[in-house]
């Protein structure tokens, strides 16, 4: 338990055990499940934690309120990493009212069979706890249909659900002025690109809504608590959701025997010769796509290369491309390249994806049979030159 004020507490946990978040995304540095508690005339919990940490969570609550009852459990987001302890809270505090919106109630019944003592709230509705008053803002599809945020007026604190959150367990430092942010920024952007990015339009809608309230502290369900400089994270979310990429290049390739890789190397060199310093080169078979997508989100220029594998793209590139399409990527300048030995579909498939994603494809497309020849160097230079000319 960590006291954030004399009446608001962090009662979250660190997960350093799970390898894959959502059974898919590596979290080598762990993740925190942040939950909060407001102690007033009424006691309110805001979100819970993953079920595996049930005992720790309940112990933290009891360490503050002893034998007092919990009056409300606000569910800003019912994905199980935050709702996993609902049934335990109901068992420990049978009179607790679960606060959510109409869609939350649907999930609550479906996941947990809970239908009683549910308090449905609507947009801007308030709930008085004594000296603290909660106001609820609906933020659907950020990133589930039922997501909402809870604002506590007396401390100007926003409990934001997954929004403004990121990977990385809290290593002692919990608040933004207690940590070196560069690590958390990378892990926040990876979280954003892979989990929230598809819903960037809804992020913009939520930011517009929040612009009408004064926020001094942002309490997400993952990562650090922002109370020194909340504007920093709001600005980052604004940038990421507008998909405003920085000048820089991501080159991702799939190569079976090194020929497509050789083109990737030539392209990287061509960009360096043109003065570009931020160049990230990834073998898609070796680096998890979540890291590649995070850098694709960061920069404005992307080169995608694939050898042809049984008339298709090389499978790791196919996975990356599928994820890119699902993320509704936009505002990127793209070049494609690849090699083949007889049929050569991979580059055509890469081009097709750029059409589906509505991202701009730059010429020349580089497609080599067998090993790249001397003309490939010229093509790489030409493609790099065209892409650099389009940078800011
Ligand atoms: Fe952290 Fe969408 O759950």
Automatic annotation (TrEMBL):
It comes from Desulfuribacillus alkaliarsenatis. GO terms for molecular function: electron transfer activity; FMN binding; metal ion binding; oxidoreductase activity, acting on NAD(P)H. It holds the Pfam family ODP. SMART domains: Lactamase_B. In the N-terminal section; belongs to the zinc metallo-hydrolase group 3 family. Residues 249-388 form the Flavodoxin-like domain. This is Flavodoxin.
